[in-house]
Amino acid sequence: MDIILFHSVYGLRPAVHAAAERLRAAGHQVHVPDLFDGQTAGTTEEGMALKDSFGRDELLKRAVLAAAPHSESGLVYAGFSFGGSVAQTLALGDEKARGLLLLHGTSDIAEDASAPDLPVQLHVADPDPFEPDDWLNAWYLQMRRIGTDVEVYRYPGAGHLFTDSDLPDFDAEAAGLTWKVALGFLATL
Length: 189
Hints:
189 residues, alpha/beta, Rossmann fold
């Protein structure tokens, strides 16, 4: 499977490369674009400021350009938090998308979006300050409305970026389960 994996607002850090290696070890070809030109952040606040300094339109343009050379045969889009929102936006706009793996983040869904039978899997903390219950419920219903085959996995007590072993949010048990379920999902595509 060909996967494009987008980083969080922390930038392209070792944890993202480790995730890509985990996916490669399972037999997938993984592309890991750097949307922030090598810049990384030490805190969420710094990361949000870094993201905002580029602007959403510029970051989406960079993501599209990164995905384009690999999308002809159908990509699985994946991402961490902010990267999940980028992956979702691209996957819902790509009729050849083979799947969508969201780790810790979602995005708005366009009114005219349509993604019949697109397999989608979301892994998110419970509770998550960036993905509150009301938002997730509405997001789930909208994803079903546009035709996706969506699964949501919630991890009680985990921090927002619980799969990132370099951050205080890390939760080894939740991360292990996430990767087990996600690799199973990818194996079905």
